[in-house]
Amino acid sequence: LLKKQSLIITIGIGIPAVSGVITQVIFPTVFHIPAIPVTSTFMTFFSIATVVALRQYKLFSLSDLINSETLIESMPLIIFSLSTEKRIIFMNNFAISTLGLSKQEISTIDVMKLFWFELENDKKKLNEIYESAFSNAEIKNIELAFNTPKGKIDAILSCTPVINNNKIQVVLITARDITELKRSYQLILTK
């Protein structure tokens, strides 16, 4: 796609340049014919080629202008990735601040310490989620809780394996805070 865009723009600038050299340099010097000023006319061709490259091939699309990391950093979700050794490789700023960590801690902290376990079964559930995700299964909407400096945060968690060269490189974990939703639900039930 990028090659097509470049080719169209190159042809668009090449035709006026070649025609200008032929009609304004070669004809007057070699054939002793007066120069024919057609370069400005052929520059219209360049403009048309540029418009085609911009419109048809979306030369400057929005996705090219926005960095993926910037997009992830701006999301109000807990997002982090785990290596196959269950070490945190990446954590967005929202997750770092919500979980009360520093950037230095994220590579050394035990992932299990991030979670709040009320029952021993919760630990087992989290390990099963990890194992499923590392076995190429996408896990969606599992309710777990995080351990934060402010206490327990209830969350809906999803795990997605990230595959490169037919091999799982990391598991991307996204979580949304549902603490207030659960409190509201409990209030409705008690009334």
How would you describe this protein?
This protein has 7 helices and 5 strands. 13% of the residues are buried. The chain is an alpha+beta fold and 191 residues long. A 5-stranded antiparallel sheet has the order 2-1-5-4-3, with helices on both faces. Helix 1 packs antiparallel against helix 2.
Number of strands: 5
Query: How far is the N terminus from the C terminus?
Result: 60 Å
Spatial sequence of strands, sheet with the most strands: 2-1-5-4-3
Q: Helical percent range?
A: 40-55%
What is the makeup of the main sheet? 5 strands, antiparallel
Q: H/E element string?
A: HHHHEEHHEEEH
Strand content: 15-25%
What labels describe this entry?
191 residues, alpha+beta, 7 helices, elongated
Topology, pairings included?
Elements: H1 2-30, H2 39-56, H3 62-65, H4 68-73, E1 78-83, E2 88-91, H5 93-98, H6 120-134, E3 139-148, E4 151-164, E5 167-177, H7 179-190
Antiparallel strand pairs: 1-2, 1-5, 3-4, 4-5
Question: Care to give the gist of this entry?
Answer:
With 191 residues, this protein is an alpha+beta fold. 47% of the residues lie in helices and 24% in strands. It has a 5-stranded antiparallel β-sheet with strand order 2-1-5-4-3, with helices on both faces.
